[in-house]
Amino acid sequence: MVALSLAKLAGATVTVTLTTADDAIWLVPYTAPYLPLSTRITHGLLFILTLEVLACGCVAISSLFQWVVASKKTSSEVKWPDEEIILGSIGAGLCWVIAIALFVRKYLKKRRRAAEQGLHLSDRELHRAVTQKVSNQYGSIPSEDDNDENLVSSRPSPWAVISFTTLGALDEVSYFPSLLLGGIFTPYDLCLGTFFAACIVLAVVTLFLAQCKPLLDFLDRIPLYGIVATFATALTLGVIFDVMMNDG
Length: 248
What we know:
The chain crosses the membrane at residues 45-65, 85-104, 190-210, 222-244. Keywords: Membrane, Transmembrane, Transmembrane helix. This is GDT1 family protein. The chain has one domain (2-73, 80-247). The protein has 10 helices and no strands. The protein has helices at residues 2-20, 27-30, 37-75, 83-117, 123-138, 158-173, 176-181, 187-207, 209-221, 224-247. The protein is globular, with a radius of gyration of 21 Å. The protein starts with a helix and ends with a helix.
């Protein structure tokens, strides 16, 4: 039992780490060595805290689903399937919907990128477009040649860190309630795993970015819809197994 709990906790930690690490590059300028130690610590703690709040929000959403299902089942005179089957079906369905939505969005992005390349932009225009895209996603990342005004302020920027963390993790946390409903992780696993994952990501970005850059590039190439579809398949098979066991 303890081994299973530890395995679920490790699974939650790995899942959150793999899906959020590649979107945390924006942390680099906010934890840069030229910033005061207090500012870097503040930014790091805000990053961890924001991810924890998002995880707690996922727990609240899944708990609401569970409460609604339990209430309907208690008040209804119609015989309902087992609660595990209902919640597992909801979780699997949500995962499939999210996976399909992510796939469609990825496909549309590729189409749009191909159309932009067909416009034969000049080198200068292309450079400006790419720079603007990176700036919109992660904020300006300072380099040695940047002017002082492009550097992150030495004072803490709490709202910037909270905003970037939330926007960067929205896709990743969107399917967490489904995993909770399907019983893959418990709320305890998800919340504690998110904390460990946030600490790992923060350490990688601030201390080992150069060494881990190839790994981050590899993770960035793994489509999120593939990860969600894998969980959806596992949940679907679990529901089918539960139905077969009940019929038997």
